[in-house]
Amino acid sequence: MKHARKNTRVVIVTGAGTGIGRATARAFAAQGAHVLAVGRRPEPLAETARAHPDGIRPLAADVTAEGAAEHIVGAALDTYGHLDVLVNNAAVVGSGRLGTHTRASMAPQLDTNLVAPVLLTQAALPALERQAAHGVVVNVTTSVGQRAWPGNAVYAATKTALELLTRSWAVELAPRGIRVVAVAPGAVETPMGEHSGLSPEELARMRAWQRAHTPLGRIGRPEDVAWAITQLASPEASFVTGTVLPVDGGAVVA
Known about the structure:
Layout: E1 10-14, H1 19-30, E2 34-39, H2 42-50, E3 56-60, H3 68-80, E4 85-88, H4 103-130, E5 136-140, H5 153-173, E6 179-185, H6 192-195, H7 200-212, H8 222-233, E7 244-247
Parallel strand pairs: 1-2, 1-4, 2-3, 4-5, 5-6, 6-7
Helix pairs in contact: 1-8, 3-4, 4-5
């Protein structure tokens, strides 16, 4: 396929079928980047790409599958010739209090939220390092990882671990010219609540509680988080690395 021009940024966004991932893919494409939008389901990915058919290429792939990291990075390089930004956004959330967990119940969260970003970042390193301006890794965590979250502690723990990896990789990869940052969303209007099995009534109660505990008094939009991701990944942020930026309406500091 035709490769992108060297001055055109190439971005991989995982979990790009809905929510924050969709908004992020579209935000990068609106800036003129070429985006490889990765997700498990072809139909939502096609909807993501419909807004920017020339800028977004859908790739149906499960980030937890054996060899997925190499496949995803390879697809970006085969299509565009280089890679500038990797956004580790794909995540799953599951509920459960201590005493209810099993290896099988925790595995999807651990594999998707923690193991997959490690392997995908590792696979992307040679391509990111080859860029003249060097590459950027953006991890999407959660602001709740800085507080207690009874009933969802495994999810929060995977995201907190990703924040530690962000800081560690920032130091480890700085000599190679690669920046690593993270964005920590608070309450954002995404399908994650429905996907976690909450009933409409439970979801409504959760949203009401979130609004009451967010100083700005509203639920965030995926576009709010996408803005932060694109800004941290921009060339103008070239002296920013190792930071975790909350995008949560002030919830963590309240």
